[in-house]
UniProtKB/TrEMBL annotation:
Key word DNA-binding present: yes
MF-aspect GO terms: DNA-binding transcription factor activity; transcription cis-regulatory region binding
Superkingdom of origin organism: Bacteria
Alphabetical UniProt keywords: DNA-binding, Transcription, Transcription regulation
All copies of domain HTH tetR-type, residue ranges: 1-60
UniProt DNA-binding region: 23-42
Keyword Transcription regulation part of the UniProt annotation: yes
Family matches, as InterPro entries: Homeodomain-like_sf, HTH-type_TetR-like_transc_reg, HTH_TetR, Tet_transcr_reg_TetR-rel_C_sf, TetR_C_Proteobacteria
Protein name as annotated: Putative TetR-type transcriptional regulator
Length: 205
């Protein structure tokens, strides 16, 4: 690993642990360089923070570009990759720091959104292929992608708030199976633009 990459990794690790309050001295010490070397490469602490977290956004993009011929296998690969990157301890720490520092670095919100959109667009394409092959019920693929990601985030909501992994948490294959049952070709579902009918009051008692 070259000097620049070593500084970026040290910065990412230190910022993830301490937030933007992390000192340049801490980062330089962790990278095994003097402060002058850090400033030579990145100009300032702000410049280092921006570059470290912009790079992290890119690495968190989930690769779902190719189809294996089975939508279940494709979705399982997506979920496993999503959990290992976005929902890893490093990914969650990154997310918390980003949320805390968006007011100071508003442009990073755009970078994060773009990276997220790339991953979601790839998932949408996989779902479209699965629907075209008849493996999934024909629905707007963007909606189906939102459902899967919401299911994933819901399963990990405790960890997003800093709680430990629960032993009863659904596995990637269980998450995919829940999604597949919800979008099974023979599953009956009301169209998305159907009106929601209120439950008669007599049925609430």
């Amino acid at each position: 690993m070259d000097t620049r990459a070593r500084i970026l990794q040290a910065a990412l690790d230190t910022f993830s642990e301490k937030g933007y309050a992390a000192s340049v001295d801490d980062i330089a010490r962790r990278a095994g360089v003097v402060k002058q070397t850090l400033y030579h490469h990145f100009g300032s602490k702000e410049g280092l923070f921006r570059e470290a977290f912009t790079g992290m956004c890119t690495t968190l993009v989930v690769d779902a570009a190719s189809s294996s011929g089975s939508v279940r296998l494709d979705l399982l690969r997506f979920v496993e990759t999503f959990e290992s990157r976005v929902l890893s301890e490093e990914g969650l720490a990154f997310h918390r720091v980003m949320m805390a520092e968006l007011q100071r670095f508003p442009e990073l919100a755009h970078t994060m959104h773009e990276s997220w959109q790339v991953a979601q667009n790839r998932l949408v394409r996989l779902l479209q292929v699965g629907m075209e092959r008849g493996e999934l019920r024909a629905e707007p693929a963007e909606f189906a992608a939102e459902v899967l990601i919401s299911l994933l985030m819901g399963v990990h909501r405790g960890r997003l708030m800093g709680k430990p992994l629960h032993e009863s948490q659904l596995s990637p294959s269980q998450i995919v199976d829940v999604f597949m049952r919800a979008f099974a070709p023979d599953a009956k579902a009301a169209p998305l633009d159907s009106p929601i009918h209120p439950i008669p009051e007599k049925d609430l008692t």
